[in-house]
Specification:
Length: 453
């Protein structure tokens, strides 16, 4: 059966500048739904961490979701494999057994299930990972299990660490990212743990959702976390609640924080928040600079996208809706749907639109005089978009981008079954310029900017 629908590329695509393809990695059986990049073995170079997990669907909360069919039951929620590789794809260590069945597993919102930090003060990096109802602490050098604990619930899907605290002792933060068990509301609760994995504090936060940025919001030298619309210190003390939500009731499902982009401008810490029904630009004291009602702002990025404006600007995607550009004053600069891009044909099994946890990333220009671009990945093979929402860069592809036939998928988001591509921008060779890593569960393609050899 022919599963590929040809998707004609116009001459516009062919005229775009090309990124330089440096290498293609065959991820064999360990390729993951998520990629994390960090120096885990103290060699001064970053390594890749490929995660195979069901993401939020590891929780038993979803077992009765009939729309997800048999895929929510098999493989089981404790399916987990984390593989550490060098940037050339050679394996350093592996924790767990790679998934090896022919039909893809379901996974969603696993992009905060791994973090890296020297949590025990031994001078070496540990890898913290969430597996079913456990928090694992792995030795970065070897993948050896150093510590673990059973969490109160199986729906915790985000882990990060306060590495700079008032008492110099790291604090681990573990949070729910989506659906909750009673009596908690959507995106709650959040746990604060010490380096020995003892729970110090448990709390709910207003609008808690899918991202937890860390910053020193009050200038005391210690990190705080933006949990929903509240800035919280490592001991659980709430520093402030966003002014627009003080004394007001929130709909936790319809108004939670989907994405936060943190940046500095003219000495100020600013945060752009995609808040499910509203886009916010706020400062580090909890004051709203401006906000805009939008259909469903799901994701936002900050960068030097506009060559006509020296200030940063915002790129916003709505959930299965229009995309927007905004300047720092809150003025909309463009609005359009970005096109699909399937240079080797679109599988007929892709009947529904994508709904990715990370639909776009900023690729910072190697030239400070040039503009950054957004690399957009929610419409097939990724491509670059400039500050006007126009196509500006393409990524040369290889035959491996052709997606396999998947005939038995439920009527659900196809990206949850590995039928999309994801991106990560990182200076993997330490030359001062970011590379772009495009990956799926089978391969990874590494690119440099057209001007960087």
């Amino acid at each position: 059966m022919n599963i590929i629908r040809l998707f004609k590329q116009t001459s516009l695509w062919k005229k775009l500048p090309q990124a330089k393809l440096r290498t293609v990695l065959n991820l064999e059986n360990f390729g993951g739904a998520e990629l994390f990049i960090h120096d885990i073995n103290d060699d001064g170079l970053p390594e890749f961490l490929w995660l195979q997990s069901k993401g939020i669907f590891k929780s038993d909360l979803y077992l009765n979701n009939k729309r997800l069919g048999a895929h929510i039951h098999h493989p089981p929620g404790d399916m987990f494999c984390l593989t550490a590789t060098r940037v050339d794809g050679s394996v350093i260590w592996q924790y767990g057994t790679p998934f090896s069945e022919p039909d893809p597993y379901i996974s969603h919102a696993g992009e905060m299930m791994i973090t890296c930090c020297d949590i025990d003060g031994d001078g070496h990096v540990e890898v913290l990972a969430l597996r079913k109802q456990e928090l694992l602490v792995l030795e970065g050098n070897s993948g050896r299990l150093k510590n673990s604990c059973v969490l109160p619930q199986d729906n915790f899907a985000a882990v990060t660490t306060f590495c700079n605290t008032s008492n110099s002792s790291p604090v681990i933060l573990v949070s729910v990212m989506a659906d909750s068990y009673p009596p908690y509301t959507y995106g709650n609760p959040t746990l604060f743990l010490d380096k020995s994995l003892n729970i110090l504090h448990l709390a709910e936060h207003i609008g808690s959702g899918h991202r937890i940025p860390l910053t020193d919001a009050d200038g005391d030298g210690a990190e705080e976390a933006l949990l929903g619309y509240q800035m919280v210190k490592s001991d659980g003390t709430i520093l402030w609640t966003l002014d627009l939500w003080q004394g007001k009731q929130i709909d936790p499902f319809a108004q939670h924080v989907d994405q936060v982009s943190h940046f500095k401008w003219n000495g100020r810490d600013l945060f752009a928040i995609a808040g499910s029904d509203r886009l916010y630009l706020i400062d580090s004291t909890g004051v709203t600079i401006w906000s805009q009602m939008l259909p469903h702002p799901q994701y936002c990025l900050i960068g030097r996208f506009d060559s006509s404006d020296s200030r940063p600007s915002l790129f916003v995607t709505n959930r299965r809706e229009m995309m927007h550009g905004f300047d720092l004053d809150g003025h909309e600069t463009w609005r359009r749907m970005l096109p699909e891009n399937w240079p080797m044909g679109k599988p007929n099994t892709l009947a529904r639109p994508f709904h990715k946890g990370v639909p776009a990333v900023v690729w910072h220009s190697p030239d400070l005089k040039s503009q950054d671009i957004v690399v957009y990945s929610e419409a097939g093979w990724p491509y670059g978009v400039n500050g006007s929402g126009r196509l500006c860069l393409r990524f040369p592809h290889t035959g491996e981008i052709l997606k396999p036939a998947c005939a038995n998928l439920p009527n659900h988001r196809p990206d949850d079954f590995g039928l999309s591509f994801s991106c990560a921008a990182y200076d993997i060779d330490r030359d001062g310029n970011e590379e772009m890593v495009i990956f799926d569960r089978r391969y990874a393609w590494i690119y440099s900017w057209p001007s960087v050899q």
